[in-house]
Amino acid sequence: MAATDVDVFSFNTVVLRLLPVLGDITLQICSPSWLSQSSSVASFISRCCLSAPLQLHSLVVTNCLSFRWNEEKRSLNLGGHVGFDSLPDQLVSKSVTQGFCFNILCVGETGIGKSTLMNTLFNTMFENEEASHYQNGVYLRPRTYDLLESNVHLKLTIVDTVGFGDQINKEDSYKPIVDYIDTQFENYLQEELKIKRSLFNYHDTRIHICLYFIAPTGHSLKSLDLVTMKKLDSKVNIIPIIAKADTISKSELNKFKIKIMSELVSNGVQIYQFPTDDEAVSEINASMNALLPFAVVGSVEEVKVGNKTVRARQYPWGIVQVENENHCDFVKLREMLIRVNMEDLREQTHARHYELYRRCKLEEMGFKDTDPDSQPFSLQETYEAKRKEFLGDLQRKEEEMRQMFVNKVKETEAELKEKERELHDKFEQLKRMHQEEKRKVEEKRRDLEEEMNGFNRKKVAAETLSLSQPLKKDKDKKK
Ligand SMILES: Nc1nc2c(ncn2[C@@H]2O[C@H](COP(=O)(O)OP(=O)(O)O)[C@@H](O)[C@H]2O)c(=O)[nH]1
Ligand SMILES: [Mg+2]
């Protein structure tokens, strides 16, 4: 529109009726010269925005003004009880009926105490197969269990990294783990992209937490630990734990914890931080963040201490109690992992790690939110563009194949012709040889005939001569 045509009143009466419904609206300016006069644009915008609860969302160079409805919420007092205050209860009831999924990935060398810790954590005996140290490579073994606690169903999947750290060449040990995590994301994405989705009863196998078991060496992290954690940190929530913490002294443990954290920081490894934005748990979470990595001890053995039976490891010199906070950080780990932050771990997995995977995957497939002019990119357009690209590719490939086929036929034809020519030459040569032979035989035959004729002539002459000789002798005697 030209500067003189700007009619804020009619703009408001038409557009403002649509805006609360649409949420935002974009005006196409037909006169680029008007748009370039910044003073007229500014006055138009301010008049529009003053006369209605509008907010200029974006002023785009492509002749568009984009507005967004910015009305303040209007609060009202209810005359009596309506009942929507039961909404949280409805949500709780629905979630309890549906049940929950929680998936733990245990990464650590064979024999470091992964299975024992899982048994200790959930106070049960999961089926454990002792892994051998002679695996050719690393593979992931998921096992799913249905657990029930006070009417709450938990579908728990524990994924074990079998053979991790057992190979001489550990260069590719992290790959099966990364692949497994990506496959679970991919499965979820595929379900989301289906036309008929059933996410409400979908068995979500995405990994919510990776417990990384560090050997209690007291030295420093192994390069395998650093490489693996670095490869995983953008895909999963990592909580590093020092395993078998009963085998390291208290002062060594403190130094080891500091060393591990400084190594993680200097190598840019992002581990999971317990959230501190929720007031109810911010204090405890902040204090626990400072205690990472947790030093844990696992045991399912029950030992009598005083008049209480506790889970502990018994040594000739004393007893290490798993749930004694002076002995190890097991209780802290259980508190943080299960009782305080389980939902945050699930949420982080969906909102951060899966979102990143989904974004990269969709971008890889050619989907975008905005085009180069910052205009919203429609799915339909993307699909059409991709389809066109795909069809073009297909046509090009078809043409290439056709050309290849034609070339091949031509080549074969030329080869056949060459062979035919060779055969023809050979035939001609043989024919010539045959004629030559024939000529020679003919010559020989003629020679032989001549010889025979000569011989016959000589024979006749000889016979004639021998007949005339006796007559002459008789005549001589008579004389
Ligand atoms: N000292 C000590 N030994 C442990 C601890 N946890 C497990 N173990 C022992 O380490 C061995 C291997 O444990 P396991 O859980 O099978 O290891 P995984 O191969 O990592 O699953 C077993 O003999 C366990 O009793 C621990 O916290 N401290
Ligand atoms: Mg095991």
UniProtKB/TrEMBL annotation:
Residues 417-448 have a biased composition (Basic and acidic residues). GO terms for molecular function: GTP binding. CDD domains: CDC_Septin (cd01850). The keyword GTP-binding applies. Residues 98-364 form the Septin-type G domain. Keywords: GTP-binding, Nucleotide-binding. Residues 417-479 are annotated as: Disordered. The keyword GTP-binding applies. Pfam families: Septin. Belongs to the TRAFAC class TrmE-Era-EngA-EngB-Septin-like GTPase superfamily. Septin GTPase family. This is Septin. It comes from Dissostichus eleginoides.
